[in-house]
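Pilot study result, target chain (506 residues):
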Amino acid sequence: MTILDSSHEEHSAPSTRSQRPANSAPKPPASDSFLDRFFQITQRGSTLAREFRGGLVTFFTMAYIVILNPLILGGFSADNAPTDVAGGWLSAAQVGAVTGLTAGVMTILFGLIANLPFGLAAGLGINSFLAVSVIQEVTWAEAMGLVVINGILIVLFGITGARTAIFRAVPKELKAAITVGIGLFIAFIGFVDSGFVKATAGGPPVQLGNGGSITSVPTLVFIVGLLAMGILVARKVQGGLLIGIVATTVLAAVVEAIFRIGPASAGNPGGWHLNTPVLSGQLVSAPDLGLVGQFDLFGAFGRIGGLAATMLVFTLVFTNFFDAMGTMTGLAKSAGVAHKDGTFPRLKSAFIVEGFGAIAGGATSGSSNTVYIDSAAGIGEGARTGLASVVTGLLFLGSMFLTPLTSVVPLEVAAAALVVVGAMMMAQIREIKFSKFTVALPAFLTIVTMPLSYSIANGIGVGFISWAIIGAASGKAKKVHPLMWVVSAGFLVYFARGPINLLLGA
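Predicted structure:
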């Protein structure tokens, strides 16, 4: 069943051995159940158990956003929250509620309409951009209005087919490089979040642990969890990632009960990051959805002028558009549902629903919702269809009432799962012909720019520009799709937006 994209025929997983995930099991016998037919579970070589398990794993690896998003966008008073130009601020409790609500609704819709095992939630790049930069010029309501406009534009790109056309114009080697880059990126996120590598004041940009050695117990728990999950996956244990997450969380709780480590802070740098693995106090609470609808669609244009507001929208669109495109490329390949040209079933539907995620995020003041690379954890667990997304989405809706439970898993445990999944995604590097330097250099730049600049969009932009220029300069200009030149020009503007703002006085 295709609701938004009737023109794109649903396909089963690729038939070639090289495109089927290494950890996939033989196709199970056909089933006549409604869920099997609706989500085409058997057709994609999965089972109900794998889909439910994958949905659980994706939720556990994404659940941190319900805690982290309120910390980025809001606070418990004006003293500890990002304040806008008018002195306004967002309540952390309200942001947490709308974060779970929007992620739940959009992930369920994505599963039902696009039938892909991708989870959606507030994008970390955009929410940080809003909290650090945008509200220095406009109010929170006006900033969220810009997010809604950004989402409307992305939906229009999806409906008109412009987004799909751009996606198809990207060479398959560059799509593979995007997948590998995302794998390296999420592994690097895991290393940083766990404290396994840290930034340094002088010398090399990062170093192992503290002064070149592991000195904190939570980081040691991360290492144990990483090895445990790696062993379980290597031995092809069903539910290996989920078992590893639960077991490592239990270990973290035992360690915390014995050593009383506490949360990380300036005075306790060796503490747990984001969540302390302990249950205490009230476990269930009613969500406060007071932020729903609190946005001003065109207020920013009146406050700072059309040019400055347009540049802010341009930045949001480019970040949202290409982060999601790159993420979906990598996830589709990991799930084994990508076709030979890198496209995947219900491509147009996926792009449109993801665009509505941006609209919904702005309308609820929880920031633009987009596809999460953390979904690769559930895919690594066996998820292949939208049923896994429905499971993840229902759990997100439940998280509105069970915030204390979602905050039990420390970031060090989720980080271990990300590193394992990153290793899985690196397998796509075999599709890149490094013997051809016109392919090798753009692919390499795409891969390394993502983790080094901490941005998927930056990696895609560098890859697009270098592919077009090197291809043309090597006498292969005819092989560079015209849309590659158009998008590359857009990325040049994106990378130069700071100087452009200064020149235009924006």
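One observation from the pilot: The chain has 21 helices and six strands. A full batch analysis is planned for the follow-on phase.
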